[in-house]
């Protein structure tokens, strides 16, 4: 019946499809791109903002800890970034954004109720275990956002929950969700929260087990989730490996782990369709070079996961910054978010 009505409506809306007219009255209606409308905006700190949005047709409910690609138009250009969903599973999605970088700063400081986001479905394997198990959460900075979704999902629903959260923040003022965590831990004895203010106490030392032994003596028996800066993740990965417990650790990275730059690499990048040439070193990604040059570059996760940034290599060589692999075959699809010039190269962009 719906398809019959749309075909009938098309007689009056031709040559535009009916959905183009429907979207004038309902911003969530789109046959081509999933959308969401901002329903609430609240400040968490001076630099961090939580944004709730009501998704339209096609959105799949998220699992606690997952992330989604969010698109927003800035100066007439649609920019995509990936953000962890901080709301509990089963609730309308929220993202908590800290102002760092062009897109995150725009979202944190300029988003208003009624604004429209462009969306991609939730994804990610940084999720709660399937059965009851004591948990340890190690987070720092904005790395607490996916873990907050887990805590909001698990703690109110399970009386047998046993969670230790160790969260690091540079200052007390910049620590996210402090009041809410204090209230949750006061009401639920299964949640134990430890804040580490690094400007006063220094960072947690994961080069040995001493800090963990003092804060959470039974950490070896817990399923552990870690999310934060790259050096923290690398140190945790090494520590759990040395303790012969790698299967007990789940890591969520906001940035791709890259190899050291190779001296003497880099070159001239030619963006053929944009008719631009840019000199680049061997450590800056093709995506960053193109964006800095004002070229419209497709992107999503910016970590080599979603493959939204795939761009044909027309000639020359590029280097995968994660593995060091050189790509030089004409027509290769290059992930620009994790590749850099390894000599002169031409891209179909």
TrEMBL record:
Pfam families associated with the record: Fer2, NAD_binding_1
Entry's InterPro entries? 2Fe-2S_ferredoxin-like_sf (IPR036010), 2Fe-2S_ferredoxin-type (IPR001041), Beta-grasp_dom_sf (IPR012675), FAD-bd_FR_type (IPR017927), FNR_nucleotide-bd (IPR039261), MRET (IPR050415), OxRdtase_FAD/NAD-bd (IPR001433), Riboflavin_synthase-like_b-brl (IPR017938)
> Organism, per UniProt?
Rudaeicoccus suwonensis
Co-factor requirement: FAD
Task: Recall the GO molecular function terms of this protein's record.
Answer: 2 iron, 2 sulfur cluster binding; metal ion binding; oxidoreductase activity
Q: Oxidoreductase as a keyword?
A: yes
- Keyword list, A-Z: 2Fe-2S, FAD, Flavoprotein, Iron, Iron-sulfur, Metal-binding, Oxidoreductase
Q: Where is the FAD-binding FR-type domain?
A: 31-129
Q: Which domain of life is it from?
A: Bacteria
What name has this protein been given in UniProt? Ferredoxin-NADP reductase
Domain 2Fe-2S ferredoxin-type per the UniProt entry, residue ranges: 267-349
């Amino acid at each position: 019946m719906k398809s019959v009505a749309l075909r009938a409506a098309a007689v009056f809306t031709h040559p535009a499809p009916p959905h183009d007219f429907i979207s004038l009255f309902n911003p969530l209606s789109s046959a081509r791109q999933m959308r969401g409308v901002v329903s609430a905006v609240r400040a968490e700190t001076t630099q961090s903002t939580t944004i709730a949005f009501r998704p339209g047709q096609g959105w799949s409910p998220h699992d606690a800890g997952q992330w989604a690609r969010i698109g927003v138009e800035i100066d007439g250009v649609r920019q995509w970034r990936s953000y962890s969903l901080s709301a509990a599973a089963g609730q309308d999605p929220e993202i908590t954004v800290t102002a760092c970088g062009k897109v995150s700063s725009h979202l944190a400081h300029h988003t208003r109720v009624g604004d429209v986001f462009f969306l991609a479905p939730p994804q990610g394997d940084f999720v709660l275990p399937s059965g009851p198990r004591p948990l340890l959460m190690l987070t720092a900075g904005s790395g607490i956002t996916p873990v907050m979704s887990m805590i909001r999902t698990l703690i109110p629903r399970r009386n047998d929950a046993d969670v230790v959260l160790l969260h690091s923040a540079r200052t007390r003022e910049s620590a996210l969700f402090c009041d809410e965590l204090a209230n949750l831990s006061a009401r639920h004895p299964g949640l134990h929260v430890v804040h580490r203010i690094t400007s006063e106490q220094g960072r947690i030392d994961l080069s040995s087990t001493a800090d963990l032994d003092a804060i959470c003596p039974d950490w070896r028996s817990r399923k552990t989730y870690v999310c934060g800066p790259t050096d923290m993740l690398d140190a945790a990965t090494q520590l759990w490996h040395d303790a012969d417990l790698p299967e007990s650790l789940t890591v969520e990275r906001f940035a791709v782990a890259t190899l050291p730059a190779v001296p003497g690499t880099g070159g001239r990048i030619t963006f053929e369709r944009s008719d631009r040439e840019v000199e680049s070193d061997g450590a800056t990604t093709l995506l960053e070079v193109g964006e800095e040059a004002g070229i419209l570059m497709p992107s999503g996760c910016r970590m080599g996961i979603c493959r939204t940034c795939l761009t044909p290599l027309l000639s020359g060589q590029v280097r995968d910054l994660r593995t060091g692999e050189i790509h030089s075959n004409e027509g290769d699809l290059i992930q620009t978010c994790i590749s850099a010039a390894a000599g002169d190269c031409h891209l179909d962009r």
